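Allow me, if you will, to draw on your knowledge of protein folds for a short while. I have a record of one protein: its chain in single-letter code and its fold written as discrete structure tokens. The full record is reproduced below for your convenience:
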Amino acid sequence: MNQVQEFNDYRSRMNEKIMAADNKVIKRFFNLDTNAYQEGALNVKTKEMLGLACSMVLRCDDCIKYHLGKCMECGLTDDEVYEVFAIANLIGGSIVIPHFRRAVEYWEELKTA
């Protein structure tokens, strides 16, 4: 199983378990996150690029994978993704580089999935 399928399977499985707990605050938080990325004054593509850049700066590999997947769904090109990577590295500094490497690896897998 490649890392894209592994990530998506794990995320789905754990989200089901989390939602099954039926915690109102958690459900509302997940809903807020979902709604924040809906079309609005900013289009979905722009919001996903922002999410990717922020995730890289915050150094959250799971978030990076999630937003890369969404960027792929939105039809981002390699050039667009690398511009997001460039901004994230500029803002986050050299500490982002290991996450950048893993992001490039994951992006390459997404393109073949």
